[in-house]
Structures are given as C-alpha cells and as structure tokens.
Model the fold of this input.
Amino acid sequence: MEHETQYAVVVKDLVRTFGKFTAVNHISFQIKPGEVFGFLGPNGAGKSTTIRMLTGILAPTSGQGIVAGLDIFTQAEIIKTKIGYMSQKFSLYEDLTVEENINFYNGIYQVPVEKRSQRKQWALEMAGLTSHRRSLTRILSTGWKQRLALGCAILHEPPILFLDEPTSGVDPISRREFWDLIYDLSNQGVTVFVTTHYMDEAEYCDRLGLIYRGELIAIDTPEHLKTRFMREDVLEVGCEHPQQALEEIEKIDAVREAAVFGKYLHVVTSDREHAEQAIKSLLGRMNLRCDHVTKIVPSLEDVFVSLIEARDRVEQPMQEVAR
Done:
C-alpha cells in the first residue's frame, strides 16, 4: 500500500485472529490530519484490538496499515514514539505525585531536557492540577486522573493521539470537560482516534466508524449516519405511561423495535403510516392519552441498533445453512 501522505492513518483489510476467533475482520478506513475519528461499538466488538494494532502493541494477522507514515507491521516500535496513547485502564503510577508522574513520562517519551519544565507546566495547567502538583495521584478523582493521563500521553507533542475508552467510569460533567480538551487538541492539528460506547460522545466526533463483531458496518459523519444509513422511519411517541404502552406497541406488525427515550418512545417502523395509525388506535384502546406520534430524525442509537439488527438478519440464514 502506498504511503498516502494526505492521511494520518490508513487501514486496509486489517485482520486479527486469536486461534479460530476473528476479533477484527477485514476493516478499512482512512483518517485525515486533525480529524476526531470515533470508533463506536459494544464491548467485545473489536475496538480495543484495533487500537492496539494501530499503536504497535499488537501485531496484526493480515492486512495493511500506515500510522503517521509508518508501517504497523515493520515499524511498530517507531510508531510508539510518534503517537500518544491512553489505554482503557488507568496507566499512571498512583503512588507517585502528579508532578512525579509527569517527570517520569517526560523521560519515557524522551522530551528534550530543555523543554521538560515547559511541557510539565503545560500539562499541569491543561489538567487543572497546578495547585495539586505534589498530591499523590491515587487521591485524585477519576476525572482528574484521566486529564492527567491525557497530559502525560501528549507531553512529547505527538501528531496523532489514540484514546481507548478514555472516559469510561467518568461522571458526565468531567466527560464533557475532557471532550473540550480533545477539541482543543484537534484545533491545534492533532489527529484523535477515540473508541467509545457512549452514544452522546459519538456525536462529538467529525466522523464515526461503527464496529460490530469485528466488522466495520458503517462509516460517515454522525449527521450522515442518521440521514443516510437508517432505512426505516422512526416515530417518536408521546403518551401516558410509556413503559406500559411499550410492550403492546412492540407487537404491532409494522413495528421493528421500540424503546423508551427519556419520557418518549422511539419506534422503528417498516411501514410508517400503518404503524402510526396502529399506535394511535392501540393507545385509544388502552385509554392512554396520546400527545403526539411524529416522524423524527433517528438518534445514533437508533441507527446503530438498526444496522446491528440488519446484520444479524443477514447472518442468521447463513448460520442455519452452515448447520
């Protein structure tokens, strides 16, 4: 594969197997410099396996990949020096102070001696930990630990940053603040590859890859995923006692699936007009007030669930034939 210099990351037919199990199955994509690229999928979908291959930690089984102009097969060790990486598991030393952790990673990343003081001060300010520089890392909240880990991961000012579930277990306000930091880095030209299973975080990305059972089932901007990839119509139902109505609505022929979204129901339909009339009639028979049944732009969760179910419907007959 040619080193396509217009891209920060290029992946083609990438595969990783563990014995007979295929964790990543022939995925292909490109990421532009400065782009925030999200990798969205349920646990076990292949997100972490992909990120470990791209960061030089895990050797691919087959395929091709270029990261920062370097081959993931033959230049894995060099790649590690050219990227920033935050693993899913908190990777700093909890028995060291905030400042000692930064000093340690300044050395690990071989930051030039004359720049270490300046980069340490930058990391402390970015993480909001200047006044806690001598505090033991273990006493920090999860949100502060993640900000510190991010600062340590980019002390050497890498052009590409890989974040594997960086906000897992972090409260919503800290997650939002963490994403503000990601945007700041992207605005400075840093390419960010981030894995997540949070649908609201996926909305923050410039583009998204949806991965399921090791396969990339869709890739586009969040807006295009919601308008181009959703084949069925989605109805929002506002009614009394939505949880009570849900079970009966799911039995309607034209309803593919239904779920509670806040105080409303989202109903995916194969025939919008038929479903709309059937829902209104049903609610009337149940003596439940119906405020509205309205076609809406689907959420990312609607899209993802629909794509997964479509993939499962295709695979089911194949599995039955294989038996």
Q: What stands out?
A: The domain at 9-220 is CATH 3.40.50.300 (Rossmann fold). The CA atoms of residues 88 and 166 lie 6 Å apart. The longest strand covers residues 21-31. DSSP finds eleven helices and 14 strands in the chain.
